[in-house]
Amino acid sequence: MPRGLAGDAGDAVGRRQPARAFSGRTPFEPHHVCSVLPLGRTWRWVRLRGGWLDRNLRYVFPLPALAFIVVMMVFPLVYTLRLSCTEWSMSSMSPPAWVGVANYASLLGSDQRFSGAVWRTFYFTVLAVVLETVLGVAIALALNRDMRGKNLVKTIFLLPMVATPVAVGMVWLLIYEPTIGIANYLLSVLGLPPLHWLASPRQALPSLVLVDVWQWTPMITLIVLAALTALPRDPFEAALVDGATPWQTVRHVTLPLLQPAIVAAMTLRAIDALKTFDIIYTMTQGGPGFASETLNIYSFVLGFQYFQMGKASALLMIFFAIVLGSAIILSWARRPVEA
Amino acid sequence: MGVSSFKQQADIIRTPPTWVFRPTLLHYREVFGQYQFVHFMWNSLVIAAGSTFFSLLLGLPAAYSIARFRQSKLALVILVARIVPGITFLIPWFILFSRLRLVDTYTSLILSHMLVGLPFIIWVMVPFFESLPKELEEAAMVDGSTRSGAFLRVLLPLTGPGILTSSILSFVFSWNNFMFAVVLTGARTRTLPIAVFNFLSYSEINWGGLMAAAVVITVPILVIALVAQRYIIAGLTAGAVKG
Fold it and tell me: At A30, is the secondary structure helix, strand, or coil?
């Protein structure tokens, strides 16, 4: 059973099958085990301590990582939570002043920029994730056959995902450039009127969604392809025997079987799309006006351009709650449909 | 992008886009000469390698421990790390690092990039350790090795593919990182993404230079992707599909 968000720690659900067994090696004989690496002398002192270390391994091994997490993550989270109840501008010399829930009240109550940012964040995420899922699954189904050059296709698909977002943003800036960009040139070839793209408040956010779709559709495709190779054969043979058309097979056999993997991919994608920053900030900085200002951009501007640390912290706590809530709701949707 | 970076400014702004032009290395000379991109590349490299190395150092034993002792609570923490928006940590860090005079040092950047690298490495490595049979360690311990010795000498060599996958991607995430770098870099530690972004701040955009900069930042990633695509795919799809 595929798993993504929930319980990925091999908990009570039972042992997981090997993700990929080590390939191309023969398991060696037990009595050669200690001669794999010539480290014998170096580890003599470890062996002397071995009794103590082995007994406490379960505490000693995770300790450094845990220390990092506490110092660098848990503590900052608690600190931000405290800061969110203060009024503090870093540019002034005065210490933070305690204001209770005033920051939250002003954000949730009267802040037009905040409500706009919430709406734009969901608009961006839903539109991007839906488009990416539909396209990604369709492409995966089309690619799911033995064909030459499949690895080449996979490599090409990989590039948008690992490319530096800042560089991606720059290239799309040139593409969208109204007078010299390729986008309007292509439209003119097709006989369509030119668009303003990022320069227009109405087109900016959809233009950014398009970049996100270009960048992340391949991830959905790769995940679905990986899931397709792991599907059982029997249902397909049964469908064949029953004389199902290819379309019926896809609709009633393939897609239901893929559902957990697709939802998992959507969940991972949604969490990251909600937090999209690099592409939006490098291309529009939230503009024109506030037309593409999502929650992440707004909190960055509040914190690191206006230096209103208290209000920014409150905004981030709400933002965190939104992402966490979305993740939990989506992970409920992972249960396979009762057929 | 590649094509545009070899064009003169005049050729770039010609419409319709032209494929016939006199290629020029002018923009690359700009990028490496006037804008000191070698220096930014070095910064990016040090920070990416450093954060990956320390993430492995802390992450591998933790991943092993989670896998063997079923420490699912610890794994949950790693998940939350994926969900919390990065800026949430950035505000306290910025305050703390300012006080400690650590803004614009490699230390602060390596630490901040580990926030992405460490959870990711643990996330990828836990299933790898789970897939190795317990008998391997037991056999080693019968032979008089300690458990930690068995981990070092027997298990780590076997999880090679996993280590490769997670460290390559941890490196790439750090190389690409923009948000933390905007806040925590200064004149001395500026990384490539910031240098590329700074091209925008001129009144007339130098498109050729911008594209050359984008090429420079992308080429290393491109090479890594071509050489190690199998590992990268395994890493990027990790957590979504596991049999």
Answer: helix
CA distance B48 to chain A (A): 13
Instruction: Determine the pLDDT at residue A298.
Output: 96
Of A54, A171, A222, the CB nearest to B1: A171
Q: Which residue reads 């707004």 in tokens?
A: A298
- pLDDT tier at A272, thresholds 50, 70, 90: very high
CA distance linking residue B60 with residue B53, whole number of Å = 11
**pLDDT score at A175:** 87
Radius of gyration of the CA atoms of chain B, in A: 22
List phi, psi (to 5°) of B238.
-60, 140
Nearest to B15 among A64, A185, A299 (CB): A185
DSSP per position, A184-212: HHHHHHTTPPP--GGGSHHHHHHHHHHHH
- pLDDT(A6) > 80: no
Percentage of chain A beyond pLDDT 90 is 40
pLDDT(B108) > 90: yes
The tokens for B2 are 């590649």
The counts of H helices and E strands in chain A are: 16, 2
Read off the pLDDT of each residue in B156-165 and give the average, rounded to a whole number. 89
Instruction: Return the residue matching tokens 């900069």.
Output: B213
Calculate how close chain B gets to A291, using CA atoms only, in Å.
20
Highest mean pLDDT among A66-70, A248-252, A287-291, B42-46: B42-46
Cα Dmax for chain A? 80
Only one residue has tokens 């005049």, namely B10
At residue A322, what are phi and psi to the nearest 5 degrees? Answer: -65, -45
Mean pLDDT of the B193-207 span: 79
> B2-7 long-range contacts, Cβ below 8 Å, gap at least 24?
B2/B211, B2/B215, B4/A174, B4/B207, B4/B208, B4/B211, B5/B208, B5/B211, B5/B212, B5/B214, B5/B215, B7/B208
C-alpha span between A286 and A300 (Å, rounded): 10
A-B CB pairs within 8 A amount to 331
* All domains in chain A, ordered by first residue: 101-165+197-337 (1.10.3720.10)
Please tell me the pTM assigned to this model.
0.84
pLDDT in tens, A116-135: 999 999 999 999 999 999 99
Distance from CA of A248 to the nearest CA of B (A): 25
